[in-house]
Amino acid sequence: MLQPGQITMRGYLAAGALTTLLMAALQSAKADDVPVLNVDQVCRGIAQQAAAPGERGGPDLSLQQCISSEQEIRQRLVRQWSTFATADRTECVGEATAGGESSYTDLLTCLQMAREVRNYRWSAQP
Which of 14, 66, 76, 79 is deepest in the core (most CB within 10 A)? Predict the structure, then answer.
């Protein structure tokens, strides 16, 4: 007879299975939506590199242009997101967020390259 508070091996297995299912569902949901990336760090780096002495507007203007460009690319991703394979979306989101600096430009490029490779492999089939 079990004492109050005791958990059986079956209980541990059920909890483990439930945790695994929840994690899989979260990963799937993560790939279903365009992620919200923090592009501030990458845009600050780009703006600092663009801060040449003859540049009109200086690094602040370049920062705003970069952020604006990244948001435009995000909107493009929102429109095209469902056209990319789920596996590619998951892989590319992981790649785009892995190094600490996130960029929608990098995410879109990764997705486009993955699609091209997939299409090439399919067309190269005998």
Answer: 66
